[in-house]
Amino acid sequence: MTGASRGIGRGIARRLGKAGYDLTISAREGTRLQQAAEELSDITGGSVHPVAADMTAEKDVSRLVRAHDERHGRLDVLVLGAGVGFSAPLAQTSKRRYDLQFDVNVRAAFVLVQEALPLLRKTAAGRPEHGAKVIALASITGLFAEPDLAVYGATKAALISLCQSVNAEASDDGVSATAICPGYVDTDMTAWVRDRIEPRRMIRVDDIVEMALAVTKLSPCAVVPDITVTRPGRQLGRA
Ligand SMILES: NC(=O)c1ccc[n+]([C@@H]2O[C@H](COP(=O)([O-])OP(=O)(O)OC[C@H]3O[C@@H](n4cnc5c(N)ncnc54)[C@H](OP(=O)(O)O)[C@@H]3O)[C@@H](O)[C@H]2O)c1
After folding, report:
1. Mean pLDDT rounded to a whole number for the chain
2. Comparing C-alpha atoms, which of 146, 140, 138 is closest to residue 106?
3. Residue 138 has pLDDT above 90, yes or no
4. Would you kindly state where each structural domain of the chain is located, as residue ranges?
5. How many CB atoms lie within 10 A of CB 214?
6. Residues 6 or more apart in contact with residue 201 via CB below 8 angstroms
C-alpha cells in the first residue's frame, strides 16, 4: 500500500496487519517509513516490508509492484493511499502544482493498477470466494466541487473514475475497486485548515479505516464503487 507512513494510510496498514495481512508499505521519506514498519510489525507480528518510493517517478512505482510480487507472489488488497493537495483559487493555480497533484494522485495510481492487475487477477482466481480488492483514498471533492480545491478535486474525480474502470474490466474476474471519498479527516494533510475547522470536528482516521476494512471483507459478488464519508449538518457534502 502507498502513503502508509502517516495519516489514513498508516491507520489502514495497522488494521490490515492486525487482520493478518502481510504488508508492503510505501512512502518517500525512508526514516519515517522504516519507523512505521517497525511499529507495524511490533503490533501485528506479521511481515511488514517497507519500500521507499516516490509516486512521481514511474520507475519507483514499477519497482514497488515488483518488490511486492517477488516477496509474496500474490496481492489481496492494493491500497492507493499516497496523495497530495494544494489549496488555491482556480485562476491562481500554477501548472507545476497541477502536474504534481495529477502525477501523484492519478498517474501513479493508474500505473500501480495497470502493473498490479495481473497479480490481482491471479490472486482472485486462486481465492474465488474472496477475490482481490483495490481501495483508493479519493475525496468528497471528487464528487462535489469545493472552492480553492479545483485541481485536487479533479484528480480525485479521476481516481473515482479509475475505480469504476477497474470494476468494468475486472470485477467479473473477482477484482473490484472502491474509492473512499471523505471530507476533511484529521491528519497532517489538513493542518492548513485547522485555524477554521477544529480537528475534533473533522472525520477520524479510524472512521476511514473501518470503511476500508469492511471493503476487504466483501465477497466478489458485491462491488462497492465508492463510499462517501461526509461531516455532519451544514457540512454535508462539503470538504
Ligand atoms: N486528510 C484528509 O482530509 C483527506 C480527505 C480526503 C481524502 N484524503 C486522501 O487520503 C490520502 C491520505 O491522506 P492523509 O490525510 O493521510 O495524508 P498525509 O497524512 O499527508 O499522508 C500522505 C501519505 O502519502 C505519502 N506521499 C505523499 N506524497 C508522496 C509521493 N510523491 N510519493 C510517495 N508517497 C507520497 C506520504 O509520505 P511521504 O511524505 O514520506 O512521501 C504519506 O505517507 C490522500 O490520498 C488524500 O488525498 C485525505
Report:
1. 97
2. 138
3. yes
4. 7-235
5. 12
6. 231
Q: pLDDT per residue over 157-196, tens digit each?
A: 999 999 999 999 999 999 999 999 999 999 999 999 999 9
Give one DSSP letter per residue of 167-200, joined into a string. HHHHGGGTEEEEEEEES-BSSGGGGGGTTTS-GG
| Chain centre to alpha carbon of residue 86 | 18
Which residue of 62, 101, 189 sits with most ligand 1 atoms within 8 Å of its CB, as the best mutation to test the pocket?
Answer: 189
Tell me if residue 50 falls in helix, strand or coil.
Answer: strand
Give the C-alpha separation, 203 to 182, whole Å: 8
Distance of CA 180 to the CA centre of its chain: 8
> Could you tell which of 187, 197, 230 is best to mutate to test the pocket of ligand 1, judged by most ligand atoms within 8 Å of the CB?
187
Q: For residue 46, how far is its CA from the centre of ligand 1 (angstroms)?
A: 24
Cβ of residue 188 lying under 6 Å from some atom of ligand 1: yes
**H helix count then E strand count, the chain:** 7, 6
Q: What is the DSSP string of 61-123?
A: HHHHHHHHHHHHS--SEEEE-------B-GGG--HHHHHHHHIIIIIHHHHHHHHHHHHHHHH
3-state class of 209 per DSSP? helix
Instruction: Supply the pLDDT for residue 91.
Output: 95
Asked whether 231 lines ligand 1 (CB < 6 A), one says: no
CA of 52 to the centre of ligand 1 (A): 14
- Measured CA to CA, the distance from residue 137 to residue 210 in angstroms comes to 13
Closest CA to 120 of 151, 161, 163, 58: 163
Has domain 7-235 been given CATH number 3.40.50.300?
A: no
